[in-house]
Amino acid sequence: MAMTLRLPTEDSLALARTAALEDRSQHDIVLIAIREYIERQGRASLIEQVMDSELPRYAEALDRLGQ
Hints:
By secondary structure, the chain is mostly helical. It has helices spanning 9-22, 26-54, 59-65.
């Protein structure tokens, strides 16, 4: 899928500098950033689901530990 990415000038310049420093294309830098973001969000969602399901199970013990 093709798409257009419009960046503010300072972000565009930072992207260009980063790509040049890493000897990569701007496209590669953006792809890496998107993939890392998706991976982080997936982990955060999984942790949240586990906490929602398991925290009530240990609520009393956690409350005692907090005293």
